[in-house]
Amino acid sequence: MTIEINTDIALLSKFIHLPMTPKNAWWFTKETGEPGLVGPQDWRLVAVLEFDSAALKKLISNADINDRTSADMAYLSPESRRLVAPHGTVAGPWYNPSVFERSPLLQGSFAKIDDSKIFLSLSTM
């Protein structure tokens, strides 16, 4: 299954809260689960967001670290890994994404890729 990468920041802001406008965004949404196991209404939004480096530093300084580690990159779907690959490697620690949450996307995490980019994953389940 091919995932379409979207770069529309205005559309992205309808799905998640953007505490500041990113310089660039690369993102997709994907239904999750299998019929009968997870409700068909469950889905995930995955993004690489690029900010001014000073703004990203401030964002991260106000974020709480969660219990994920850099090894958790392995749990990511092949589509997520393909999204991240052109931008670098996700570098821990992982942070709670509360600053980005907007119902129904209330679970997930984010981590730095470099001094201006983060990887963000939010889901409805």
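the 2nd protein, sequnce then structure:
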Amino acid sequence: MRNIQIDLDLSRHCIETALHRRYNQDISRCLRAEVREQDLEDEITLLKSALESFDFGFLRSNWPELGGRTKKRKPATQGKWSDPDSIRRPGNRL
């Protein structure tokens, strides 16, 4: 899979809720699409994997900006928390 950048709005929700909302929006878009969109399918796969494997409690406690209620909009591929090994639940693979 190629690199995918997902921008999340954390102004009202924590990272976990923002990921759930984006995942649900993408599923709805995919079901409505008349043609297959590989980019959308790749993003859904990435979001599902993140929702299943990230340790959200760890993320929120170590990086307060991921707890929500911030005006910052950071892509999920940037910042010190982008290392998959540091944010997964033990035993889960991304």
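The chain has one domain: 15-87. The chain has four helices and no strands.
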